[in-house]
Write a structure and sequence with these properties.
Layout lengths: L1 H38 L1 H6 E5 L8 E7 L2 E6 L2 H14 L26 E4 L4 E4 L4 H4 L6 H13 L4 E2 L5 H11 L4 H7 L6 H5 L12 H20 L6 E2 L4 E2 L2 H5 L5 E3 L13 E3 L4 H18 L4 E3 L13 H18 L4 E5 L1 H5 L6 H8 L7 E5 L7 H4 L8 E5 L13 H14 L4 E6 L9 H8 L11 H10 L4 H14 L31 H12 L7 H31 L3 H22 L7 H10 L4 H14 L18 H23 L5 H15 L16 H11 L1 H20 L1
Parallel strand pairs: 1-3, 5-6, 5-15, 7-11, 11-12, 12-13, 13-14, 14-15
Antiparallel strand pairs: 2-3, 2-4, 8-10, 9-10
Helix pairs in contact: 1-3, 5-9, 6-11, 11-12, 12-14, 18-19, 18-21, 19-20, 20-21, 21-22, 22-25, 23-24, 25-26
């Protein structure tokens, strides 16, 4: 009887397995087809997806033409999406925007595929996002925004996105169960745009309390995000408990080993954070409560972001202590989820590199079993930490391109050099180099650097000599020789330096006597940038979304640099007490600010109006809409602590309504100082500007009347190039003379 029972089970298994495989096959095909349909029904009717059954473990896709269809094969929905993007980029000359409101711009006739092409993934893991992106770019996104963005991630092969939306609801349930009140918990959280730095244990309570409405809305949103990411073959990275606790927990649990983590970027004591020692029994209890509640709400993919001591000093730097902390944290994860893997951002190993010596870092990383902690080499285009720390002492790691701090709207990023570094790392980085990623802090509008990096994750990436032409033709939508020449300059000779913090053009920095602001110095020849802008503006009248971005991106940078030149001339005239020259320079400065405002207005995602509108739309009444707007205004201007200007943007509306009044006040103070025969009152001026900036962040005090700008980016660009022809010529000559003088010394 037992043999008959076993035989029946075997027959059932033989029947079920093909059915299950068929179901999985159909699910991947259906998800890929649905993605194509969301992009364009016309595109969806042209392509056909088929599941590719592989003997190996590497992701792969293929593309070929059959019977008038484009047939795309892949081993999962994610690989199929990469194949679809290959067709869009290389056959349709199309760039899919990561913004939801930008339609996919397809050619009138969708091309056939004449030559079959196959590609395999060079690395199994493709990571994307940064805690900060959730504050600088995504805090007010709704499902329509996330839906397109997730599609964009799939098209670019990302299969390990950071997914931290909605975690405050989990923490709210944990902290209230541990005895805290509703008001205490919501006051512990920061405002919505500052949650990334709360999640990274940097600040508590800043611009809080967080409305309960926010928590509920983000919970529902996270469920949608995770469902779609998982459907498209992604393994979302959810958070886990890293030891950051509310200060009220000390009163509720007086015997718990809770320590102060110290000051962060100039914030007062009341905003400082606290850390619970991982050896304390309460630690494992909180970890269990959090992971179980998170899994109940959002499920799990068994990989957790646990980021220790980010820009804050640990209680001890003794190697034994660091080893024990990481061991206990991993054990607390494993006790709840036996499949748990720890993902740790490696920013602290760059930012705090003086403290985290090889001995200390080795101790911390080897406290976790080999293969159970994956490190993100966070800013590898600037400093490859894996080379400083012996390939992370055997732990798996992902090479990451950061590319943008604070969502700064500037033209930077050493793209070509980053690609060369990455290729070298893939050869020299060892078997534990398991992935390629990007950890950008803000999206801005230019996608090229990030798409370029993720192209490197697949076999047969473009050679350096091919990149400018391929990008130019995709952005133009046709084989434009002018765009090709412009991108040759941008790729090879302008985009030559890594992103920096506090980086903006002189026009978007706080006015300071005799200086150009934080990090606004040029590290390229402005003549090259001027040539690139002229070439881009010399194209046909048809402009794609990607080309409109190129025109705005290059033009606002060049005009912002020109503003710095005029500001330097103003300061020289001020020192000479030459009011005639001061008037001439100040007129140019104010004119430039207005024209930069106009140029940015050509691209909807380069406007203050869009940002504020998005924030207010999340509110359920005037009070909550005002609250979200206040957060939205602060993060891109005053920030808090010592971070004023960190997230500077050159947006339309912001230039006109925020920066122009600041610069007008600077000019007025200089003029008045000359008239009164006194020095420039630097201290008094700074105080006045700070009062204006803080008031500007408050809804109800702002009265933007808007401007009726023309909306033709080619016409506006050509007009501005002609308008500032002589000023740009003088600026370029001055820069050349200065550079020649420096090189001769």
């Amino acid at each position: 009887m037992k043999r008959i029972h076993v035989l029946i089970l075997l027959l059932m298994a033989m029947m079920i397995t093909p059915l299950a495989a068929h179901a999985g096959k159909n699910a991947d095909v259906q998800q890929a087809q649905a993605l194509a349909q969301r992009l364009s029904p016309r595109l969806a009717s042209k392509v056909e997806f088929r599941k590719l059954m592989l003997n190996g473990t590497k992701d792969a896709f293929g593309i070929e033409g059959k019977n008038g269809k484009v047939v795309i094969t892949g081993n999962n929905a994610n690989s199929m999406a990469v194949g679809l993007n290959y067709y869009l980029k290389n056959y349709c000359l199309c760039t899919v925007s990561w913004y939801a409101d930008v339609p996919v711009e397809l050619p009138a006739v969708l091309p056939d595929v004449t030559t079959p092409f196959t590609s395999t993934a060079r690395v199994p893991q493709r990571f994307f996002l940064n805690y900060c992106t959730y504050g600088y770019s995504m805090p007010f996104w709704q499902w329509k925004d996330w839906e397109r963005f997730i599609d964009w991630m799939a098209l670019n092969g990302i299969n390990m996105p950071l997914a931290i939306t909605g975690q405050e609801s989990v923490w709210y349930n944990v902290w209230t169960r541990l005895g805290m009140t509703d008001e205490q918990v919501r006051s512990y959280f920061t405002g919505p745009v500052y949650l990334p730095w709360h999640r990274m244990s940097n600040i508590d309570g800043w611009c809080g309390p967080l409305p309960k409405q926010w928590l509920d809305g983000q919970t529902a949103l996270q469920k949608q995000i995770l469902a779609r990411e998982r459907a498209l073959g992604m393994r979302p990275v959810l958070p886990a408990f890293a030891g950051h606790v509310p200060r009220e927990l000390k009163a509720l649990y007086p015997n718990a080993d809770i320590k102060h983590l110290g000051e962060w970027d100039g914030f007062a004591d009341q905003y400082r954070t606290f850390f619970l020692n991982s050896e304390d029994p309460l630690y494992a209890k909180i970890q269990k409560m959090f992971l179980e509640e998170q899994t109940r709400l959002f499920g799990t993919d068994h990989i957790y972001g646990v980021d220790l001591f980010n820009e804050v000093a640990p209680p001890s730097l003794e190697p034994d202590y660091l080893n024990q902390v990481s061991r206990h944290i991993y054990e607390s994860l494993k006790a709840v989820d036996k499949k748990a893997q720890w993902l740790q951002m490696g920013w602290f190993l760059y930012y705090q590199r003086k403290d985290f010596t090889p001995e200390r870092t080795r101790a911390m990383l080897t406290g976790v079993p080999q293969g159970k902690m994956t490190m993100l080499d966070y800013f590898a285009e600037r400093t490859e930490v894996w080379r400083m720390h012996d390939k992370f002492y055997g732990q798996p790691y992902i090479w990451c391109y950061l590319g943008n701090f604070g969502g700064n709207t500037v033209l930077h990023g050493n793209v070509k050099q980053a690609g060369e570094r990455l290729e070298k790392a893939l050869k020299e980085g060892g078997d534990n180099l398991v992935g390629i990623g990007s950890t950008l802090e803000g999206l801005d509008v230019q996608q090229f650097p990030f798409e370029y990096i993720f192209d490197k994750a697949w076999t047969t990436p473009l050679a350096d000599t091919q990149v400018p032409a391929e990008v130019a033709y995709r952005h133009a939508g046709y084989h434009s020789p002018q765009a090709r020449q412009a991108w040759d300059l941008l790729y090879n000779r302008v985009l030559t330096f890594p992103a920096s913090t506090f980086y903006g053009t002189p026009a978007t920095t706080n006015p300071v006597l005799g200086k150009l602001g934080h990090r606004s110095a040029m590290r390229y020849d402005p003549a090259l940038l001027a040539d690139a802008w002229r070439l881009l503006a010399a194209q046909d009248s048809v402009v794609t979304d990607a080309m409109r971005i190129d025109l705005v991106w290059t033009g606002r940078q060049l005009l912002g640099d020109l503003f710095g030149y005029e500001k330097t001339l103003f300061d020289k005239a001020l020192a000479a007490r030459d009011t005639v020259a001061m008037h001439e320079c100040s007129n140019e400065m104010l004119s430039l600010l207005g024209d930069i405002d106009c140029l940015n207005d050509q691209e909807p995602h380069c406007t203050l109006e869009a940002w504020v509108k998005q924030a207010r739309a999340l509110g359920t009444n005037k009070a909550t809409s005002d609250y979200y707007e206040m957060n939205a205004r602060r993060i891109i201007t005053t920030w808090g602590g010592d971070l004023n200007g960190y997230a500077c943007r050159g947006w339309s509306g912001l230039m006109r309504d925020y920066y122009l009044p600041c610069w007008q006040a600077y000019i007025d103070e200089g003029m008045q100082a000359v008239r009164d025969g006194r020095p420039f009152d630097e201290k008094g001026f700074k105080q006045r500007i700070e009062r204006f900036q803080l008031a500007w962040c408050e809804p109800g005090t702002h009265h933007d009347t808007g401007m009726d700008y023309p909306h033709d980016v080619l016409a506006v660009s050509r007009m501005l190039i002609n308008k500032y022809k002589s000023e740009l010529s003088a600026f370029i000559q001055s820069h050349a003379a200065t550079t020649s003088s420096k090189s001769s010394k």
